[in-house]
Amino acid sequence: MEHLEEEMTCSVCLSVYEDPRILQCSHSFCRKCLENLIRSSESYLWRLSMGRLKCPACRGITDIPTGVQSLPVNFALKAIVEKYKNNLRSKTCIEHTRHQLNMYCLKDRKLICGQCLTVGPHKGHPVDDPDVAYMKEQQAASKFLAALNSKNFTGVSSVIRALEEQMTNCKNIVLEDKKEVTLFFDNIIEVLEQKKQDLLAALNDLNLQVADVFAPQIEEMKQIQDEEVDLVSLSSSAQTEESPLIYLDTIHDIRQRMMALKKKQLLPIHPVEIYPRVGQIFKDQYLKTSIGDVSLLPVPKFGIHFENEDYKGIASSPLFTWILVFVLLFTSFILLFFYFNSEISSDLTTRYWTCFSEVMGPVLHFGENHVNAVSHRLSSLYMEFIGHLHSLLKV
Q: Could you tell me which residue ranges the B box-type domain spans (predicted)?
């Protein structure tokens, strides 16, 4: 079979002959192959002139006065080729190569070969001629078509429709979730942005507070500095003054202004801090609060806090310590006296409790003037108490 196929192959196109034409040298070629040789720009090797052609196989000369159509058809070769093609169109068995499917198995309803019937899986099955089976099965195609056109043949349409509905529902759910995500984070961003603006506004107010506190003090100190710079300039210019009167008058003015400047008190510098700090607020409150409760957090009140050095000095001074000791001893003495002299307790209670309040009032407000007042008042109160006690004992 392979040798026969080789003999039916055109040496130009290497395919089975199509409309084979024979040359004068008895070699055959496809008509289209010969026409292509004549039309090709590179066919000068085979085309000697418009009416002559050189054979591609043996290079023999063939006259073609009216073209390839004038060459005779190789009918013998053409018949063999047609038969060969018909054999190729007939089906062969897949399991038994080159065996024609020439029988129809009635049990399995399929074409089989002789080998399938004798030694194959269809051994002993009833068979029929393919042409007879064809006549019997002609109505099967229309029945199959009608059944397949039915939407409920396999139910796949319902499954596809259900799957499409599920896909649509899932896509709608995803779309809703995306909207929820957007809305949720937009709300969070809005809350955080509001908190941000509130904190910035509070810090801006603090900035104004800082300016209100320090700007007047700085301005006051700058006036002293300007006076000092003015005196330096005046003193420098006085060194070049040649007139004795003007010089003496200038020196007198400088001296008076220096004395006045020296008496001016400079503002004390106290340690200062800003409280609370934003970083500590974030750490103590914001980072420990859930996102939903951030809006409930109050805006802190920022402020400037100075450490009062005078308070520390007074509290640690010896005078202040002795005053407190005297107050405690005086109070203890009064209580003991009341305990042993219940008859006069009511009279002294009203009188000396008022005096005691007068004494303790200034103590609660620490300052140098208050300390001196407390010391003087305690001395007078003690002397009055002794005199009153002496008069009571005489009675």
A: 88-130
